[in-house]
Amino acid sequence: MKLTVHPEHLRTYRDVVAVLIKYGGSDFVRSVGLDAHLGEAGETSKVRANADELASDLEKMGPTFIKLGQLFSTRFDIVPHVYARALSRLQDRVAPFPTEEAEVIVADELGRPVSEIFQTFDAPMAAASIGQVHRATLLDGRVVAVKVQRPDVSRHVSKELDSLSNMAELLEEHTEFGRRFQLGRILSEFSRAIRRELDYRIEARNQSLLAGYMSAFPHIIVPRPVKELTTAKVLTMDFIDGAKLEAMAELELSELELKGLADEVFSAYLQQILVDGFFHADPHPGNVLVTADGRVALIDLGMVGRLTNDVQERVLQLLLAIADGKGDLGASVALSLGRPGENFDEEGFRRDVSEVVSMQHGLSVEEMEVGALVLEITRLCAQHGVQVPSELMLLGKTLLNLDQVGRALFPG
Question: 14: burial class by Cβ within 10 Å (0-12, 13-18, 19+)?
Fold first, then answer.
C-alpha cells in the first residue's frame, strides 16, 4: 500500500508527513505507506514537541493548514484536549503584501482605478494569510474597510486541498483510524467551508443576514457590505472603529455598562442559535470589538453556522440539561443528536455523559464552561461509537469562544 504521488502535490505531502511524524510518530506514517515520499523530513521523528509548537508549525504552513488546525480544535473526539486548546489559539497573522498590489487587485476586480472609487486608500491595518484589510474613504466621504484577497491564494489553497483529500482517502481506505473518524467526509466538509471563505460575496451575504437578525439589539453591530464595491476577491464594508477585547481597558466604560454588554452579547447569541438558526461561528476575542460609545461589533463573517429547527430544539434541551446538571437527560438528548454506529456502547455512553453533565450541578455561571462541556460530549460520542453532526462541534467551539468573550467583558 503506497500513496500515489501527484508531482504538483509533493511539497504538501512532505509537509504533512513531517507533521505526522513529529506529533504522531513514524510508525503510524510507515503503516499507511507515506514514508516513501518523506525525504529529509524524517529527521523530525525524534523531536518531542508540545501542543503550542504544533500550532506554530501549522501557522508557518499557510492558510489551508491554519484553517485545518482551527477545524481540529473543535474535534475533541480526535485531538487530545491539550492540543485542541492550543489549536483554538491559532492566530492567522502574517506580513501584509504591498498596498500597490492591493490597489491593482481592487482596480481589476471593480473595473476602474482606485482613484475613481476612493478619496483615500490607506496602508493595510490588519493582514492574514487569505487577505488583508485597508481603511479607505469613499468619494462621498464615507469611511469604509476594504478586504483584499492575496494574489494567487485561491490557486494555492485549491492545490493543497486536493493533496489533503487524496491523503484522507488513503487513510480512510486503509486504516481503522481513518474509517472510524471518516477523514474523507471531514476533509470534504472542510474543503467546502474554506472555498466559501475564499469568495467574499458569500461573506457579504452573511454580513447582511446577521445584521438584519441583530437589529433588535441596540448595542450589537455587524458591518454591512457595500454591495456595488464587493466581488469574490474584494469586500468593501462599514468601517468600525473599535478596540479588541485585550485592549478594552483603554475604553472608559463603567462596570455597569460592561455587565450590560455581556448580557446583551449572550442574549444575541441565544437568538442566533435557538431562534434564527444562523450564528457567527468564530467569536474569538480578535473578532469581537468594543467601541468607545459602548457597543460590541461582530466582525469576520467568513465562518457561520446553520442549524435546522430539529437540531435547534435538541440543542436547547441539551443546554437546559447542562444548566440543571441533569445527567440522564443530557445523555438522552446527546444520543438523539447523533447516529449510533455498529460498535455503539450505550451503557458506557450514558454513564460517561451523565457524569460530566451532573458535575455542572451547583456551579455558578462564572464557574460553568458550557462550550468546553459541549465539545467534551462530542468526544464521548465518538469514543462510544456515536456520530454527531459537524454543526454540533462548530456550536461547541462557538460557545467555547463565547465563554472567553463573556469573561473578558464581565468576569462574573
Answer: middle
Which of 15, 35, 57, 282 is catalytic? The answer is: 282
Would you give the distance in Å from CA 22 to the centre of its chain? 24
Mapped onto helix, strand or coil, the DSSP state of residue 328 is helix
Q: Give me the helices (H) in 248-389, please.
A: 255-271, 309-324, 327-337, 346-358, 370-383
Task: Check if 282 is active-site.
Answer: yes
Residues 55-71, mean pLDDT to the nearest whole number? 80
| pLDDT score at 171 | 78
Cβ-based neighbour number of residue 96 at 10 Å: 20
User: 311 pLDDT band (50/70/90 cuts)?
Assistant: very high
What stretch of H or E contains 289? strand 288-291
Query: Ramachandran region of residue 24, left (φ > 0), alpha (ψ -120 to 50) or beta?
Result: alpha
Instruction: Quickly list DSSP for 108-152.
Output: HHHTS-GGGTEEEEEEEEEE-SSEEEEEEEETTS-EEEEEEEPTT
Full DSSP string of 200-259: HHHHHHHHHHHHHHGGG-TTEE-PPB-GGG--SSEEEEE---EEEGGGGGGS---HHHHH
Cell of 114: 482606485
When pLDDT is averaged across residues 285-314 and rounded to a whole number, the result is 90
Cβ proximity of 291 and 298 under 8 Å: no
- Report whether 24 contacts 32 (CB < 8 A): no
The yes-or-no verdict on residue 37 having pLDDT over 50 is: no
The average confidence (pLDDT) of the chain is: 83
- Cα separation, 149 vs 133, whole angstroms: 9
The DSSP output letter for 269 is H
**Which cell numbers in the block locate residue 201?**
460575496
Closest to 230 measured CA to CA, from 109, 142, 136: 109
